[in-house]
Amino acid sequence: MKRLxxxxxxxxxxxxxVILFAGIGKDPNRLDSALIGKPVPQFSLADLRAADQQLxxxxxxxxxxxxxxxxxxxxxxxxxxDDLLWLANEKDVRIVGLNYKDDREGALKWLSDLGDPYAVNxxxxxxxxxxxxGVYGAPETYFIDAEGIVRLRHVGVVNEKVWNExxxxxxxxxxxxxx
Amino acid sequence: xxxxxxxxxxxxLMLSSVSVFGQSQDVYQFDSREQEQRFQTLIAELRCxxxxxxxxxxxxxxxxxxxxxxxxxMMSDGASNEEITNALVSxxxxxxxxxxxxxxxxxxxxxxxxxxxxxxxxxxxxxxxxSGRAGPAAGxxxxxxxxxxxxxxxxxxxxxxxS
Lengths: 179, 163
Known about the structure:
Chain A has 179 residues and is an alpha/beta fold. Helix content of chain A is 38%, strand content 18%. In chain A, a hairpin with a 7-residue loop joins strand 1 (45-46) and strand 2. The mean pLDDT of chain A is 89. In chain B, helix 3 (33-44) packs across helix 4. The chains are: A alpha/beta (179), B mainly alpha (163). Chain A: One of its GO terms (biological process) is cytochrome complex assembly. Chain A: It is found in: Cell inner membrane. Chain A: This is DsbE family thiol:disulfide interchange protein.
C-alpha cells in the first residue's frame, strides 16, 4: 500500500499532463453554435440592395446556402472577401450575406469596389438577427441545409483550407447547391 | 511641498479615479432598488462570448452591450431570471453561464471543491491520529538505547577535548 502511494504523484502528473495536452491547440475562442440542428431564427429584415424588400428565413429553403456575417468595419472580412468570391464563382456556392451593424452606403460601395460574392444580402444595421444567431464576432459563416437547418458555424475567416476541411464534407452530405 | 500635503493630493487622486471606472456602464433606469440589484446580479453571472474571461457586466465588447440591453429589455417585459438566462443560452450556448446548471455534465464542476475539501479533511484527520498514536512511543528510548546514547555523547566530548 505504501509502495503504491509513492507512485501517486507520478500518476497525478501523468493524468494532469494528458488532460492539459489534449487542450493544446484548441482555440477557446471557437464556440459551437447553440443553433446547430435548429432552423434559422425568425427574422424580417430589408434587402441590402432593395430597402423596400423584406427578407425572411424562407430565403434558406430549397437549397444549401452559406450565411456569411460581415461588415465593412471588420478587417478580417476584407481578408476573407477574395475567398468568398472564389467560392461563389468557382465552386458555385450560394452565399447569403448578413450585413451586420453596418451602414448601407458603405456596404454597397464595398461590394461594388471589391466584387459581390453574395446571392442576396440581409441588411441588419442593429444586429438583431446577428444577436438571435449568437454572432459574437465577424466574420462568421454558417452552413445551412436545404431545409433551412443550421449545420455548422465557423467563426473566423473562411479560406480554402477551412472550406476543404469543414464545409466541403457537409456539401457532399447535404447536396451540391444549384445543381 | 510638505509630506502631508503630498499624501493628501495622492489620496484625492486615488479616490477621484473611481468615478472614471464607473463611466463604462450604460445608464439604465430601474423602478426599484431590487430591480437594479437583480439586473446587476444577472449580468454578473453571464459570460461574454467574445472576451471570454469577463462577464457581460465588466466587458466593453459590443456583444456584451447588446446582451446587457437584451437582459434589460427582457426584465422590463417582466421575464424571470430563468427565462432571461435561457434566452441567452439558446443563442450563445451553455458557455455564457458562469453558473452552470447542475446536471450530469457539470456535476464534477460542482462537486470537485467539496470533494477536495473532504479528502483534505480525511487526510488531516488520518495524519493527526497516526502521529498521536505513534508519538509518545516513538519518542521514548529503552534503557539500553539511553545508555548507548550517553556513551556516544560522552565519547564525543572526550574526543573534542583531546583534539
